Amino acid sequence: MWSLCRAAVWALSLLALAAHGAVVAPANTPSAANEDVQVDDATLLIGFAGPLSGPNMGVGRSMRNGAQLAIDEVNRRGLRIAGKVYRLKLLSQDDRADPVTAEYVARYLASQHVLAVVGHWTSGTSLVAAPVYHAAGVIQVTPSAMSRKLTALSYPRIFRTIPNNESMGRWSAQYAVGKLGVRTVVTIDDRTPFGQGLAEQFAQEIQAQGAQVVGRYSVSDKTSDFNAPLLQARKQAPDLIFFGGLDWQAAVLVKSIRRLKLEARFMAAAGTVGLPFLMGTGVDANGTLVLEPGPPEDKMPGWKSFRQRYSEGFDSNIDLYSVFAYEAAQAIIEGLRQAGSTDPDAVARAMHRLRFEGVSGPVAFNQEGDLLNPSFTMYEVKDQRWAAVTRLHGLPR
């Protein structure tokens, strides 16, 4: 039970959210977000939380659709647990990729007694929501949040279906030094848990590999002005500039690098591979490097079938994170099956023991909820197209 002070603060925060238009409704209903969802005792609610409006709604909707596809498929087959057939229902919420909204969304989903949540999209929103789900006994499986801080919380019901940013940063740095021969590096990050954590791990591994970090800079995650760090970087003449942040800023940054005539190679964070980056950069994108989670789509064992089923069910964009959201929902479903129970703690324990074939390959978790044997692909822009150049497996040493 909240204290009176806590309740008052929360009420004021809801008024502030409403004033900014941030109080959200369930994405599949026109009703207010604080309205209870009515289900019978043979229905299990699974939550989804991600950006379903605003500039990031494309990836949010593709993730929601991936989770919905997994649920639709199991409902058609029937999910029998301890002799009883259950139906799953996805309760979707728009967190707008905003940490303040994400906490409100998490409290709403917990109040609806969801068994588990697929979400959130960013590390910042996931970290804010995680304590809420933990306190409510809700399983959280993120298909996209990479911050190591998330699984380092050691909550027993938290998982992710992509690698964490520590492994991404280490592999990126090892590739830069070992394959590209980079000796000097500048890092720029967006001050978010994802971007800053990734840049820090990249810088640490660059130094461990015997190369030099000649400059480290941070900017707002909302800025499009990179002149200050780049003018400093031009004096340092690095072999490579690494950016920890989202794709839209990476597009602005690489164009700024070319405009200022820096000769450095450019490496961006996971999530950059896709059409939006290419459309925003043109020929300036050529040579850009990005390490993404998972194998290339055409090397995923279940990709062709998944793409067909997705296209038959939805008319919106499909991307890499659709796959990881589908696998997140799969993990919850397989956990229910193996636990033979709808108790969240029993399901979470079963999920820690899981090993199943997902769209991208085998899925299994370690004791902290991270992927046991993650895979990665390094992409490079060649002739204004993304091309897979190297596949990597397992955790870097």
Protein model, in words:
The protein is of the alpha/beta class and 397 residues long. The protein has two domains: 4-163 and 300-365, 3-Layer(aba) Sandwich (Rossmann fold), CATH 3.40.50.2300; 165-293 and 376-393, 3-Layer(aba) Sandwich (Rossmann fold). It has helices at residues 4-19, 57-77, 99-111, 123-136, 148-152, 165-178, 193-208, 227-236, 247-259, 275-281, 303-313, 320-339, 344-352; strands at residues 43-50, 79-81, 84-94, 116-118, 139-142, 158-160, 184-189, 212-218, 240-244, 265-268, 289-293, 356-357, 362-363, 375-382, 385-393. Helix 3 runs parallel beside helix 4 (123-136) and helix 6 packs parallel to helix 7 (193-208). The longest helix is centred in the first third of the chain and has 21 residues, at 57-77. It is elongated, with a radius of gyration of 21 Å. Mean pLDDT is 90; it is low at 1-32. Belongs to the leucine-binding protein family. Residues 46-383 form the Leucine-binding protein domain. Residues 1-21 form the signal peptide. Keywords: Signal. It holds the Pfam family Peripla_BP_6.
